[in-house]
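yo

u said u wanted the structure for the complex thing, so here. seqs first:
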Amino acid sequence: MTDVVLSLQKATKRYAGAPAIEDVDFELRRGEIHALVGENGAGKSTLTKVMAGVVTLSSGVMMIDGATAAPSTPLEARQLGVAMVFQENSLVPTMTVAQNLFLGQERFYNRLRGVYIAAQQFLQSLNFDVPPTATVAALGAAKKQMVEIARAVLHKAKVIIFDEPTASLTPEEKKYFFDLVRDLKKRGVSIVFISHALEEALILADRITVLRDGKKVVTDDASKFDRARIVQAMVGRDLSHTLYGVKRTSVRPAGERVLTVQNLKMAPMVRNNSFSVFAGQITGVFGLVGAGRTETFKVVAGLLKRDFFHGGEVTLRDNPVRYRVPAPAVKAGIAYVTEDRKVEGFFETASIARNIYVGLLAKFPRGRSLLSKREQAKSGKDWIQRLNVRAIGSEAKVVELSGGNQQKVVIAKSLIQEPDLIIFDEPTRGVDVGAIVEIHELVNSLADQGKAVVVISSYLPEILALSDRILVSRQGKVVEEFSALEATEEKIMYAAIH
Amino acid sequence: MFGALRDFAQSFLGRGEATITVPSFDGALKPNQALENAEIVLQCEAPEDLASDGQNLFLADGVRLLRIEEKGATAVREFDAPITAICALPGSGLAVALGGQEVRCYGAPADAQPSVIFSDVGRAVNALTPAGDDALYATDGSATRDYKDWVWDLMERGRSGRALRLDLKTKRVDVLADRLRYAFGVAAMGGRALVAESWRHNLVAIGPEGASEVVRAHLPVYPSRLTPAMDGGWWLTAFAARTLLVEFVLREPAYRKRMMAEIAPEFWVAPKLRSGESFKEPMQGAHLKTMGVVKPWAPPRSYGLIIRLDSAGLPLFSLHSRVDGINHGIVAALEHKGRLYFIAKGPRRLLSLPIEGLAKDYSE
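structre next:
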């Protein structure tokens, strides 16, 4: 048996003639943690999908344990010992956690209680606090991710591929995840993981491979990399000073009070939450997963309903509002850019232009009698240009785009509504550094135009880099407010935990 | 019939008028302890209002009019009724409201005889300000209760306040707006009067013909007097902060009626100018204290707040005395010679802060 568990030689995958990866050589050693980094569209996901049997190579060879392998389905790959945890989770939302864990492994006769007990024990062994009887749809993004990870571990794979595994995890959950990965490594499992959080790659990985434009740029030991070297390899230019870590020296002054949330209740996630959002400012909202941030703003945007009895009050420009569906909120100038773009953000098989046009139509709660294909094409083209969406054209399907470009489509879909209050929920989750810079510039320009902007993020450097004012949420309500000038990571985290 | 059904449904569901919520102190209203750090200028008997002619600072203290000097205060004169409002007039004149009912204008503060008298202007005249063209704006809090009985007006859900324009030449009194829910504080805003409506927690701009526009709504406090800031905008004082408990009581008429009939006003569930002095007060124990220490974030029975507004009425920053502080019940604030003087009616003090650096220190 060789030391190399999986390798790819001259791997090429073309979509409609355009190469997603080209002549990539890749080698995964037994018991190593190997990080794959690169901008969105660099080919990381395609490379891992080839390994996991989701797509097959156009040319080139894949070898597993020294033998040529060409799995054409994820099931075949799993039988060969390769499992993948997807970036956009692939769980069945209407089934319970336990059912999802054992999906595909059912016996002829399944005793449900036994399945739940086995799932409970397994989840506890991983230190994951997820109830096995809960329906997946009711779980937050982080817990869904945990179920995904648990499922891969359960399949006893010798290679586990993680696509953005920590994007939705809190710092504490990340620590658990890192321990879990190290534990898997000790057991001889090889790990491939894609991450846009470069620090994670540096901390966790033994080796790092950088891809750019579908080609391998470099593979080296993690100890020989630093953040700047990775970024330079990824984008071909130095971005390290434009993203995070620059201390704010000024903040935008607060304008008109656009939104006031008073004693909002939505059991069990939002508990007596009160705060305001002002025009011309970016209000950052930080909190651990389960702090009720997303739910609060979903109530504001009409995506969720507050408690029926004594649910509190939401005022938009001093007028009480109560949206039962999103359409009137959109009409009133509220746009919510979802954290879960695959499920809530777009119609993946529809074109970019159509998705953006749907956003415009949402502004008319009673519908529009006339739809214009010309208007659709024009708006699609405009927004692709304005947000620098990298696509073949406005008729390209959203599913074909990389994560960062999909996110830009979701943003365009909201911005076409010309909102006054824009709520970005985890705007750069699963987005590469180049696109992060562009999205940050966009968010800043919206605030400069006098719009009220809310950025919900679990990534502290992002909150610090973007916000003029930072609200910290804990256990369903805002517990602390900081100016960006006084805020530090320590202060914010202390408020979020204690 | 429909109204009654609606009211019942709203109170059952906790919606509409029955939504018992209070806006949070955030953004420019984020709490600090600035008022607790202020310098005590004078301990008084019954401080009420401030006025400045640019050179001299005057303080209304009960029936006495005091001039504040570097080493204390000098009595300028005494009146036969408590002063409820004062303001400086152009050309070193002074206007005073006495007993909430009468407004007198003097050519100079020490003049024996007033130049103009407006008798029976109202029942609770509580703020005066020059309106230009030999006129004054005044606010009359209530037509049913005296100035000192403001808490009765709140508990009776009074709506008999008025904004007035007093013409010094013709001695005519024009009612700019009536049915206000305790008008308390007025400032000139272009050709209009900017009026603080305490029980509605609003600032309203009222034009000469009575047309009104809400400039700032849903304040988390009971706003009171307004004075102009030197570099544009105003200083707005608030004599108490809103709490969920008081908001709840204000929606329970039977409870209020019985409370007013059976309990001494100082122990009502109502905003106060000072608190923490008696064990009979509502909201005790863990409401306010942890391990014997008053929680600064506890529901405030009394509170101190001054808000700096810009020329559009937008809050820029605020100065607070929180629940664990003393300088509560702020009813007047005035800029004078680079300092901000203010009256904390709770501890009966005149205090001051240097204006320079306030914006930098207390802006977001």
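Chain B has one domain: 27-362. The two ends of chain B are 49 Å apart (CA to CA).
cya
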